TrEMBL record:
One of its GO terms (biological process) is glucose metabolic process. PANTHER family: D-ERYTHRULOSE REDUCTASE (PTHR44252), D-ERYTHRULOSE REDUCTASE-RELATED (PTHR44252:SF3). It comes from the Eukaryota. Keywords: NADP, Oxidoreductase. One of its GO terms (molecular function) is L-xylulose reductase (NADPH) activity. Homotetramer. Pfam families: adh_short_C2. The gene is Der. Belongs to the short-chain dehydrogenases/reductases (SDR) family. This is DER reductase. It comes from Aegotheles bennettii.
Amino acid sequence: QCPGIEPLCLDLADWDATEAAVGAAGPFELLVNNAAVALLQPFLEVSRAALERSLDVNLGAVLHVSQIVARQMIAQGVPGAIVNVSSQASQRALRDHAVYCSTKSALDMLSKVMAMELGPHKIRVNTVNPTVVMTDMGRINWSDPQKSAAMINRIPLGKFAEVDDVVNSILFLLSDKSAMTTGSSLMVDGGFLVS
């Protein structure tokens, strides 16, 4: 759909490969960190492997890719915007989501620190925090009708988010229409957090 976009396929947990690929791909003015994993396990059964993979992808990759891109933005002397895709799970405990909730909470705080430190360089940093989104990952983790009904019943708008709901929020935060917005979390949760 977008011929000017060149995808880079790499393991974001491999910092050397990421540095080489992303470093050579610039210059950048905008960044969306959207890579994530949701390895759901009850708290008492959380494995070290699930914890490490989740930290590597949901937090470490965001930190590292953002460092690479922000350094390029600063070197160019141009303003920029970074949007990190977080989750409503950063704000509300969910059963079997101990690791996921924790990594998304950490991402929200990382984003606030980034906003504070990158603001003087005219780089804005925000998060979008969606409810369940009907992606492949969302369908896998919320395919049980009993589980999904319990969540939907807590969402005042009565439905999960579609991809466009999140994309439109990201586009707003990347645009000049949000020029005074940094360090914020935009909830795309259908009202879940107010219920």
